[in-house]
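ARCHIVE CARD
Drawer: 12
Card no.: 0347
Subject: one protein chain, sequence and derived structure
Cross-reference: see card 0346
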Amino acid sequence: MSVNITETMYDFSHIQEKVYFTLKNIIEKRKIPNALLFTGNKGTGKQTAAMLFAQTINCYLKKNSLTKKSCDKCKSCKKIISGMHPDIILISPQKEKILIEQIRGLYSFVSGRPHEAKMRMILIIDADKMNNQASNALLKILEEPFEKTFFILLAEKLTKLIPTIISRCRHIRFMPISYKNIKHILINDYNINKKLASITALASQSNLKKALMLVNKSQNKEAIDWIKRREWLIKEISSIIVKKNISDRLKALPLSEKLSREPELLKDSILIIRTWFRDIAIFRFIPDHVINSDFKKILKNINENISVQDAITWLKELHKVEKKIDSNAIIRLTLEHFFLKITI
């Protein structure tokens, strides 16, 4: 089974409740702002919310129903879902930037009436990646609202947008999705087994889209099996922590080498290590709250050999590792220093 991320519109009313009621209120009052600004981390449902908003406004069969059950059958809904609606325009970065040519190209499009839609939507993805010229061009468009047209800007960081654009938008903040909510969605909406749902919800870092991608990887024989990787990494780290002899300590060196050869997987590997240290720190006090609950025997053994303060110290050291790697430090040497340090 493979989850089709691009075509799936999950119901975000439970995971973004405040957003849901804000947008529902806008639709019910039939007062669509000239521009909306959705901000929040990746994978928090910003683009899904924008598409559902446009779909609900333009649905022929249902009104004021901002849910995943909104029609999906009429001509307008089908075109929006398939990405073929002539009045729903998406702008996204080209080579990491949104350029002035992309924004200028909107002038001729928005100057006329919509072809089919009740309300035309211009969706600007990663609006915080507009260069200065593109930002100024968009500002001119927002200063002169066009008939039956609204804009939705998606951004991670509000600080990267010019203040004059922010002031002309209604700002709606999307909060990070909790581990429990992502796990619930994977199990109930996508029929993912509980073990895989727990692992991918953990590795996703509050990013539902990433969780779905990891599910696909775990079910794709050619991709990394995240269940096996997590099991391998936890056992490797544990053998280093509970060092019985010098050979166990020296395992830190080949482990550092292997992780450094896979930089695209490093952040997720560090996340697994961080949650493992977190479990070690809390296991003695609240064992039922550990994330890696299928490794309780190993957790019990580790807690008989190390102190809670050790685990807290390791977490602090791991944070330093992340900062060094983000600052372009040599990955292998940084990891070697860290792993050898936790064996002392």
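Annotation on reverse: The beta strands are 35-39, 88-91, 120-124, 149-155, 170-173. The two ends are 45 Å apart (CA to CA).
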